Structure formats: structure tokens, C-alpha cells
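Hey, quick one: can you model this chain's 3D structure?
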Amino acid sequence: MLHPSYTDLMKVVNSGVEEGETPVVNSRYSIVLATSKRARQIIAGEQPLVPGNGKKPLSMAIQELESGQVKIVSEEDEEEQEQMIGQQEQEEADMEPDALEEEAKGNESEE
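Sure thing. Here's the predicted structure for all 111 residues.
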């Protein structure tokens, strides 16, 4: 038997959802997908957010989800976050040449 149960995990994940809103997780399948994805990340080398003590990656992923250290986001929210990150990176890349030009001008004026 899985400890904690799927029901308990679903309650934890949906705890931040206000009444009337759509729950983040509607089924066991969502829990399985989220924990397996996180377990694969741990296997790939990401640091676990909970003490491992010889536990298997899936057990650590479940514990992370239960403790609230890992959040499940919808695909739409994930895409929005990726777009925002991409925009921020683009803005930073656009600003770098300007900063380099200003630095070069400052160095020329000192000479």
C-alpha cells in the first residue's frame, strides 16, 4: 500500500484551492504523472528536496509532494511560466550590448 494514500496526496495538492475553483488534481493519474516526472528528475541528477537516506527516487518524489516542497502546475501555467522566462532572458540579452557600450564609452572618456 502506498503511504501516504492517493487521497491524502490529492488533499495536500488541492489544499491551496479556494472553494468553487477547479482543483489542481482531479485524479490519481495526475498524482502518478507528477511523482514519476519528479522521480525522473532526481534520477537525472537534480537534488532531492528531502533527505534521501537510501530511499528510492519515487519515494523521495512522493515525500516532496506530500510536504508541499513540489507543486503541480497545469500545462497552461507551465507554458506561461516558460514564456515569461523566455521574455526575461530576451530582455536581459537585449540589455547586455547596451551595458557593454556604456562601459566602453566610460573607459574611453577616462583615457
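One thing worth noting: The longest helix spans residues 75-110.
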